[in-house]
Amino acid sequence: MIEPRPLPARLHWQEAEIVAIASVTPRVKSVRFRVGFADAFRPGQHVDVRLTAPDGYQAQRSYSIASAPDASGTIELMIEGLDAGEVSGFFTEVAEIGDRIELRGPIGGSFVWEPRDGGPLLLVAGGSGVVPLLAMLRHRAAAAPGVPATLVYSARTRGEVIARDELAERAHREAGFSLILTLTREPGGRRIDRAMLALALERLGTPAHAFVCGSNPFVGAVSDLLLDVGLPPGIIRTERFGG
Ligand SMILES: Cc1cc2nc3c(=O)[nH]c(=O)nc-3n(C[C@H](O)[C@H](O)[C@H](O)COP(=O)(O)OP(=O)(O)OC[C@H]3O[C@@H](n4cnc5c(N)ncnc54)[C@H](O)[C@@H]3O)c2cc1C
Known about the structure:
By secondary structure, this protein is α/β, with parallel strands linked by helices. The protein has two domains: about 10-105, Elongation Factor Tu (Ef-tu), domain 3 (Beta Barrel); about 115-240, Rossmann fold, CATH 3.40.50.80. It is built from five helices and eleven strands. The chain has helices at about 85-95, 130-145, 165-175, 195-205, 215-230, and strands at about 15-25, 30-35, 45-50, 60-65, 75-80, 100-105, 120-125, 150-155, 175-185, 210-215, 235-240. It has a six-stranded antiparallel β-sheet, covered by helices on one side. The protein has a five-stranded parallel β-sheet with strand order 9-8-7-10-11, with helices on both faces. The site of flavin-adenine dinucleotide has 22 residues, from strand 4, strand 5 and helix 1.
């Protein structure tokens, strides 16, 4: 008889305490959890969270880790409250410091970047899709600042840019990091297009890795554009948040 292999510890549900909550934008909250793997995950990975109602109904969703691996004993998630969003609404409206939430992870093996993977890195984000790319940028700054990186980030309005001050500061201070921000609902704003990606490649040189993250339509459109500007399909990695 073949014995089933035990699940790795990271795939077991565990209770994690919320230790901090802060507003990032009017719709996005930063939620920090105490976990045992805060120094041992790969930027780009996510966790699953599971909520259980008093009647036993359960809802499970995935959230990318925004923080870089470090010795804090905590990870940061950034959760956008969607209209009528079952799980996101709980985190943006109801959750409090001290709540204990079922969580498992870290999860994800292909949408990840580590310093040994090198660069240049082309990162393309739509809305909250910037979250796993922020983890990569934070880790790059701490562990591999020599790796060139460009972030092309599309948000609706200036107020909806996640980590706006941090990204501007990084672009100002960090050699080799460049930010191209486009605001689709501000006057004169436009969606990410071929010319914008061509500009990113001009600044960056030929990327070794391209990471694209956002809603389903965003990822589809940007992937097509990246192929159109000549990137080989093998270097493009995508993460779809749904929608
Ligand atoms: C690997 C992975 C990582 C993710 N990381 C993050 C993250 O870092 N931050 C974050 O905010 N979200 C992230 N998501 C999305 C998240 O898992 C949920 O899908 C999202 O929070 C909506 O769940 P909900 O229960 O609030 O909404 P639901 O109650 O499931 O849906 C409410 C309404 O919103 C629509 N909808 C569902 N998902 C989206 C979406 N992503 N965009 C637009 N409309 C949507 C539904 O069609 C529905 O109409 C990630 C998803 C994946 C797969």
